[in-house]
Amino acid sequence: MRSDRGMLTTALTGLGRGTGLWLSLFLIIAMVLMPKAEPLMRWLFPGDPRPIYTRASFFELTLAHVELVAISSFAAAAIGIGLGIFVTRKSGREFAAMISALAAIGQTFPPVAVLALTIPMLGYGAAPALVALCLYAIFPVIEATLTGLHAVPAAIRESAMGMGFSPLDVLWLIELPLAVPFILAGLRNAVIINIGTAAIASAAGALSLGSPIIEGLSASNPAYVLEGAFLVALLAVVADRCFASLADFTWPGGSQTR
Amino acid sequence: MIVLCNVSKTFGATPAVFDFSLKIESGSFFVLVGPSGCGKSTVLRMINAMIVPDKGEIEVHNQNIRTIDPEKLRRGIGYVIQSAGLFPHWTAADNILAVPHLLKWSPSQCAARLDALVALLSIDRALLARYPRQLSGGQQQRIGVARALAADPDIVLMDEPFAALDPVSRAALQDEIAAIHARTAKTIVFVTHDMDEALRLATGLAVMNNGRLIQTGTPAAILLAPADDFVRGFVGGEDLPLRLLDLVPVRKLMKRGNAAVAATIAAGASLKEALNLMLARRSSSLCVVDENGARLGVIHLADIIARRDAL
């Protein structure tokens, strides 16, 4: 009885750990099979003459979408973590309030408005979308970095300094490793938000999973909207699960204390 | 040797330490006592340059610490704080070896030092692979003390290290650190507000109040002649005579001869222990024995009452 339950728990945990992998597989199958879903779409949207988006393959769209999110999130992570570290150092402390405020403004500024402002400067295509997405993702990363760095107990910093750790040692060996779970959580938020927001990149002419959505909206073809939205949602879930498994791997000694 | 010369430090508008001068001899177990907020921790943290004084100079081993790189200074001084401050993402072994790692010791040097520290502080080897959250408060502080001793510093600073521990762990660690001091002749500067702890450990004592040094000397000298009412109150008030008994070993008041009593006490025990035993046995004299139980002489209640001759 006991061992039965143990086996069940192990199996369920394994499945939970594995969902990221299973969902990724599901995403690939969905991309490949989407063009074959014509009968389903015809049934869902009767009277639609061309219910499957064909201007670009779904694989191409997803790849472009992932690329937009990856580049903008990576830039946001570098800027956000960098600024978070800067304003918690002695030399940058006075900028803390200003940076927080700027990041908050970046977050509340609608991405469409950023597109409208950047397109005249950067032209149509992926560039204005990358700027908008990056601005949008910086705020959660800065907030998470600050939360993580502030969560390091003063006594730990104090004992490290007292033992002769240099400020850089304290940052690299103590503060950042302890802040990783927080930063990862912020990055997870930023990436998920960006996966959703990247769909509007197509409004600036960039290729993404937003392309079928926007074309579907303008041409009154709800099938296109459904196809794009379904893959965007699936991509977001896959990313979320990947971050969840990543979080399990970090910080073996302390993950359960927080 | 540590010398503080006319040191002052003000935080904002509140003076924390005022015109403080003190000389701590090498090899002493020096305890700074005083009520909370009297500036004793500030004094301690100025010795390893965690706090830089506004005025005055501090010398460690005849070198003004303003002329030493603070990180280099600190790597040569052990430091223990109340909450241990272990790094939660490092195992106990990695925590102990923090400073050797900073100093880039070789793996074999580190392993040898770890073995020595484990033996010195009687640390259970099974604890070494654990993370701090998997250790009790007493075990954490034992690791914290090992960490402070890891690079074998001449000086160890301890800021109320045992204040948060249960009485059993506290007593065990007090014995341990006293034994280590006796064996290694390190200079230990120890901050506490607990007078019993101070008397138990100190070879030298400084009493502080309101950021000033009120009195310094051996524990016995301070107990026998408190400089003022504050010191008298702080070091014991009405319990002062009993505390004095704690400082004197039975050996000092022992007389030759034989007593017709069965109760025995070790020559190294304190007069307070002797008095306790007399009260328990309802006897006004005890036989004094050595470690092997051989009779050395006798101690009488009347001599304890007249104890001043012994100090």
Describe the structure.
The complex is a heterodimer of chains A (258) and B (311). Chain A has one domain: MetI-like fold. Chain A has 258 residues and is mainly alpha-helical. Chain B is of the alpha/beta class. Chain B has two domains: 242 residues, P-loop containing nucleotide triphosphate hydrolases (Rossmann fold), CATH 3.40.50.300; 62 residues, CBS-domain (Roll). In chain B, a hairpin with a 2-residue loop joins strand 9 and strand 10. The longest helix of chain B is centred in the middle third of the chain and has 18 residues. Chain B is globular. The chains are: A mainly alpha (258), B alpha/beta (311). Chains A and B meet through helix 7 and helix 8 of A and helix 2, helix 4 and helix 6 of B.
What would the keywords be for this entry?
heterodimer; A: 258 residues; mainly alpha; MetI-like fold; 10 helices; flat; disordered C terminus; B: 311 residues; alpha/beta; Rossmann fold; CBS-domain; 6-stranded mixed sheet; 4-stranded antiparallel sheet; 13 helices; 36% helix
Task: Summarize the entry for a quick read.
The complex is a heterodimer of chains A (258) and B (311). With 258 residues, chain A is mostly helical.
Overall average pLDDT of chain A = 85
Bin the helical content of chain B.
25-40%
What's the alpha carbon Rg of chain A, rounded to whole Å?
22 Å
DSSP helical segment count of chain A: 10
CATH homologous superfamily caption of the largest domain in chain B: P-loop containing nucleotide triphosphate hydrolases
- Write out the CATH superfamily name of chain A: MetI-like
Low-confidence stretches of chain A: 253-258
Strand content of chain A: under 5%
- CATH topology assignment of chain A: MetI-like fold
Distance between the termini of chain B: 27 Å
